[in-house]
Amino acid sequence: MDMPTRTTDEVILGRLNTALGFLVRLAQIKVYEHFFEECGERGLKPGEFSVLWVILHNPGIRQSVLGQRLMIKRAHMTKLIRSLEDQNLVSRRIPDDDRRAVEITLTPAARTMVEQAGDWFFAYEDSVGSNLTTAERQQLMVLLQKFTGLD
Amino acid sequence: MDMPTRTTDEVILGRLNTALGFLVRLAQIKVYEHFFEECGERGLKPGEFSVLWVILHNPGIRQSVLGQRLMIKRAHMTKLIRSLEDQNLVSRRIPDDDRRAVEITLTPAARTMVEQAGDWFFAYEDSVGSNLTTAERQQLMVLLQKFTGLD
DNA sequence: TGGAGATTGTTTCTTTGTAAACAAATTTTG
DNA sequence: CAAAATTTGTTTACAAAGAAACAATCTCCA
After folding, report:
1. Secondary structure string (H, E, C) spanning chain B
2. I need a surface site. Which of A29, A54, A93, B25 has the fewest CB within 10 A?
3. What's the pLDDT at A6?
């Protein structure tokens, strides 16, 4: 009998389910979808939060450095920063010693906001991978740190 | 001295570098960039390949099932399939027993092409995470399978 | 010193993917 | 059975992200 595949778990993936790149992509989508179920309408997306968080902990950081660390391309970073500036969350300053660069700082209002947002963001992050044991989560974290070169 | 952050590895990430969601996003970008360095102008992107690969191994699979398994949204799947159809790689058939559904099959030409593409695709996939040991790669694979619910 | 090349950020255009409204077919249920 | 609800795929409008071309500034070296 050669019935066409009708249900998700019948699907034959072959070697695909051993491919790291494929698995990482699936994981990323899952995290993202899970985020919007949980944090739904908080108004602050994961990308935005990570940018603000890093600026909080590195006041005066340059756009280029921020982009390199978070792996956000220049063109996109420009848009992100402008959007944050429009929301009055960050301010830009051209340093005297290099007038091409832009140094980013949080506004005072944003500082308290981001600290607060950190609470629920990391609470959410703790719920990521809740189908793994604590030990597995720890293991996965370490492996991903090494994989991404963050160790 | 409170110098603004100037180089990537000076950047303070705080709790962020222990956040699974953040790490997974970084990993995904890294895989994707690495892919285009390696496989540059092969004309077949990771997403397209995975779709074709799954159709190859599940001939007559329905669009909805394909989308669920690869976590591709309906609206997007429609465009992907149409693009593949325009390239004469897949054909669509409305089954008699459910005239809303669409069953997808590879064209004969695509079958050999995808089998061939599999060779370099999985060769590339083997090079993903080359900064990890073989054991670590295996571990990461198993953890991601569990994480994504593919086990 | 001054010009070639690199760096930094912006702009414009394109690609990729999502959301919401819709139409058609099917299933459920009163 | 017939109306209501669900499923499946498409369309349209939009958001997120990258690529390439560009302008301004800085660096390096002949």
Report:
1. CCCCCCCHHHCCCHHHHHCHHHHHHHHHHHHHHHHHHHHCCCCCCHHHHHHHHHHHHCCCEEHHHHHHHHCCCHHHHHHHHHHHHHCCCEEEECCCCCCCCCEEEECHHHHHHHHHHHHHHHHHHHHCCCCCCHHHHHHHHHHHHHHCCCC
2. A93
3. 74
